[in-house]
Amino acid sequence: MTQRVLLIGDCSDVCFAPLLTWLHEHSELHQVSTSAAAAEFCRSGRPPQWIGWAQARRGEFNSAEIERLHQTMPLVRMFTALGSWCEGELRTGSPWPGVPRLYWYDVAGWLERQWSHSLFAPRTVTVAERALLETRAGLSKFSGHIVIESPNHAGFASLQTILESQGGTCHWAHRRIPIESPDLLLWDCPRWPGAEALKSIRQRFALLADSPDPRWGALIGWPRWDEYQAAEQAGAAFVIAKPFSLDHLVSAVGDAIAARDAAA
What we know:
CATH class of the largest domain: Alpha Beta
Largest sheet: 5 strands, parallel
Strand content: 15-25%
Number of helices: 10
Radius of gyration: 20 Å
């Protein structure tokens, strides 16, 4: 069933472009600029199943607006897409009860998981109840050899614990790798290092995979839109921002390995 999504706010910021593209492809998307226009939209026709708040900058919306719209549509599910100028908002901002707040690069993956597992919880659900619901949905399982380029062993070990619990076998790129052709290479990048470093990691992965076109993914700390785009244009099968959710990482890795197997 196609989900009806109403997106509120100014989506002209470039960081929202990939989210808009994804929503147009995967949902029946409607857009309005203000919460008042959203309330009028909900009263005038078929109500949406989801309402998203596109917040390009801090302070664009407030909890009173959400409460008023919630009174108009008490059963609608809500989320917030935070733009690049809202970096740090999840740590320092005031939370909106019952409204998950996600950075722009996490929204599509989060919605896809909500829809595929039918994780429909009322807005009054607590954080603990929501976490329990998502845990019960389970994580994807996969198999394959994954080489991880991480600046230190602690970073590698944390990713190894996650991915091997789902069926993968992980190797640290700074030690001898006992396989000739890994199924996936993963770049663990705490902060964006610049274009030259991206070029170098691409060349290193080609050597590690013994292939001019290796399949690889990137984990990048707090990426801006241009950094996110640069990694994709360099050939990354996926780009995930840090901090990340476990199910987002696991599903991306599983999908990348499955795509490699299908192409083989």
